[in-house]
């Protein structure tokens, strides 16, 4: 296939109706596209087969995870240039894009070019998806068993791998940065402390941490504020790791880690609840149940801090679809909601929402630091997991950082109170003293 890059560029531009923003280098060493731009490298013909048999985001993701496609140049720059074509999130773009592609493929000259490519790429069958792709899930969304399987797919990758990416804090959520040049460890400690101050934690209060991860939140709250804490997770590996950390800190008498779903807790009431980076897994079908359950677990006057990624609202909410790459490779069954819907559903459950803090720029900084950690320890990461899994993480974290930077998605801390009768919230007149 002489000048494969030129042919690929021509076909892509015919379909897109616009110049391709990146260069292409093909397996025959041919190159095409704007000079100086990041280069999308097609390492073999199988990469093209993946895109032809599954056009768009999922085909590109499979090619990336399998190592059939790579980027020569800055990954962030390449993803930013490609965002409007395949990686755009939080907008109405995908359906119009698919319609435009179908219209383009209906043109005779494009059909001819596509047929020519199909005859030259080799085997006329689609390649098998990479092993890292989650299996197709059936049945109702967000049952206890299905949620446990989805959480295991993402979190049971190996604690040693997470240590490389997250650093010593082992906090897998947005940090809170005093300045861009602060350390990740300081920023994660500041985030944990900010949550504790928003919850106004006091010695011997009962704290429930929903989705406790590797135990960082309950560990900080027990050590620094003297609370008695329960942390729940659906990941066996996380629970084992968290219990070891707590025992080593001498806090086993104050902190309990359970492998348990929030819908299974029966030992209420709690004085405070933190839910950090967990509600994205709940899904719209179960969010009212989630809000009702947390309300019931709190004592009157108790506070909830809900830290949650949000997407931009759509003109027609029924058009919302879960990102295929994220659903297949990262967070199976995960769903994002606009912050307004989250606030409304918490209030419908009975909460009084008292504060909403948007911190999306903080998540972009956090993700870029995680990518740096992964790239710095790449060889060690490959000893701990598969090459495909490491590539999944590098792609999803870099793409997510850009999504936060471009305001395609955000993250918010919502402070809500189970306000008792006759209506005293327990907050000071100037509640935001915690940010000082």
TrEMBL record:
PANTHER family membership: CYCLOPROPANE-FATTY-ACYL-PHOSPHOLIPID SYNTHASE (PTHR43667)
Similarity remark: Belongs to the CFA/CMAS family.
E.C. code: 2.1.1.-
Domain Polyketide synthase-like methyltransferase: 161-420
Protein name in UniProt: Cyclopropane-fatty-acyl-phospholipid synthase family protein
Pfam families linked to this entry: CMAS (PF02353)
Keyword Ribosomal protein: no
Residues that span the membrane, as ranges: none
GO molecular function, one term: methyltransferase activity
Keyword Transferase found: yes
